[in-house]
Amino acid sequence: MTGTTTANRNLDLETALCDARSSYVAARPKSQACFEAAKAVMPGGNTRSVLHFGPYPFTVAKGAGARIWDVDGHTYADFLGEYTAGLYGHSNPIIEDAVTHALQNGLTLGGPNAVDAKFAQLMCDRFLAIERLRFCNSGTEANILSLSAARAFTGRTDILVMDRSYHGGVLTFSGDSPLNLPFPIHRATYNNATEVVEKIHELGDTLAAVLVEPMVGAGGAIPGTHEFLQALRDATQATGAMLIFDEVMTSRLTAGGLQGHHQIKPDLATFGKYLGGGLTFGAFGGRADIMDRFDPERADAWGHAGTFNNNILTMTAGHTGLEQVFTPQVADTFFNRGNAFRSTLKAEIDALDLPVQITGLGSMMALHFAQDTPSAPPDSARTPSGLHELIHLDMMERGQFYARRGMMNMSLPMTNDDLDRFRMALTDTLEARAPLVRDTFDQSTA
Ligand SMILES: Cc1ncc(COP(=O)(O)O)c(C=O)c1O
Questions:
Q1: Is the CB of 59 inside a 6 Å radius of any atom of ligand 1?
Q2: Which atom of ligand 1 is least distant from the CA of 282?
């Protein structure tokens, strides 16, 4: 791939962006044709909003290990990692074998199968809060079901979430999405224990649940402090509201997710992404007295449907991954490896003395254009626009792929060389664009 090495690289952001977009487009004609064709049948050529970025996303032809290829023949180190669902990489042989074997025994079986309860048992063993568990098909569904269960269990109506948090396509709390579920929602600032405790007490016996990620994922890999999470636990216990940890992303951090790491037991927790071993997945669980309301033999049982809840492919891939690949020991080692990688990356970027921050925990991290490390999801309207796009385009030119908004995730098959190459590419890119980063940032905050 050719880099943008023109002499006027750092003249101004608009010129730099025009150059970088032109190079991207010139190198990806087949992806452009796919994008144009897709637009005829899917709005914006897109069926999952987060996959869109300008000028147009490259079309993925295949993946293997920790790499993906586009239809134009470029190879990328995959630090997007399917927004954390790609923990196992694209072709883990143990999971592939298990799924191939399951395929030979038939699909759409329409009954309990040999794997679902074993998988549920593994998850109950792994995650502190999970005494009972149910499977569903996505993280969004897991959050909807646990919020609804919390409302039914408490007989209360209202929900408290953190401002600019993301819990699924109909549970999006950056701005006001007209597609959100019509629950009475209140918002508080992430990591502000005083504010959140006040809100919980103010809402008193109208508050059914607090839904929170123990580390903000989509909003920029911002860890919740222990004090903040403990304050949520204590205040909800005092008022009788349910505390729900959304661990759709963060359960991959340490063997028992962040509930284990902090030794804080929410009433309910939700899961998704990598736990399906690469296939579509969701799960929610927690206290037995709440979850047992789903027992179909009870006269007052809550119904919970979902044709594919225990589909044999997901059950097999997820169970095999958790039992044989992402063992507790591997999970803890990977967490430490991620922390070490992020520390080195951060130290090198700090040395550039730019308004750039790296946040995260373990194998999940994010790049921010900010003077200080954010403690809550930043207001995207106040982030200097164009810088994320420029660095993202530059990194793709170097064969490195991560999320346009700055999220970067490691996957298990990544080698130390992969990590070194990514780190060097990012520091080199930021160094090469340093004057532009500084000027754009200064202008936007002046
Ligand atoms: C924290 C969190 N919760 C829920 C979801 C929704 O999961 P899904 O995309 O599987 O519906 C996501 C997806 O990115 C997420 O990051």
A1: no
A2: 10
Q: Residue 424 domain-assigned?
A: yes
Which of the listed residues 146, 166, 284, 314 should we mutate to test ligand 1's pocket, taking the one with most ligand atoms within 8 A of CB?
A: 166
Q: Which residues contact 374 (CB under 8 A, 6 or more apart)?
A: 220, 222, 357, 359, 368
Q: How many domains does the chain have?
A: 2
Cis omega before residue 57 (within 30°)? no
Domain enclosing residue 397, as ranges: 13-78+332-445
- What are the E-state strand segments in 214-272? 215-216, 222-223, 242-246, 268-272
Q: What is the largest CA-CA distance in the chain?
A: 75
For ligand 1, whether the C-beta of 83 sits within 6 Å is yes
pLDDT of 2 higher than 60: no
The pLDDT value recorded for residue 444 is 79
Query: For strand 207-212 and strand 158-162, is the pairing parallel, antiparallel, or unpaired?
Result: parallel
DSSP string, 315-345: HHHHHHIIIIIS-HHHHHHHHHHHHHHHHHH
- Between the CA of 218 and the centroid of ligand 1 the distance, in Å, is 9
Does 152 lie in the same domain as 252?
Answer: yes
**Is the residue at 3 inside a domain?**
no
Please check whether residues 300 and 345 belong to one and the same domain: no
The verdict on residue 161 lying in a domain is yes
The DSSP bridge pattern shows strands 185-188 and 158-162 to be parallel
**Is 303 in the same domain as 191?**
yes
Q: Which atom of ligand 1 is nearest to the CA of 140?
A: 11
CA atoms of 300 and 297, how far apart (whole Å): 9
Q: What string of H, E and C letters represents the secondary structure of 58-125?
A: CCEEEEECCEEEECCCCEEEECCHHHHCCCCCCCCHHHHHHHHHHHCCCCCCCCCCCCHHHHHHHHHH
Residue 160 confidence (pLDDT) above 60: yes
Assess whether the C-beta atom of 248 lies below 6 angstroms from ligand 1. Answer: yes
Does the beta carbon of 220 lie inside 6 Å of ligand 1? no
- Closest protein CA for atom 4 of ligand 1: 167
Per residue in 260-315, pLDDT tens? 999 999 999 999 999 999 999 999 999 999 999 999 999 999 999 999 999 999 99
pLDDT over 90 (residue 384): no
Q: Is residue 87 part of a domain?
A: no
For the ranges 76-90, 199-213, 316-330, 366-380, the lowest mean pLDDT is seen at 366-380
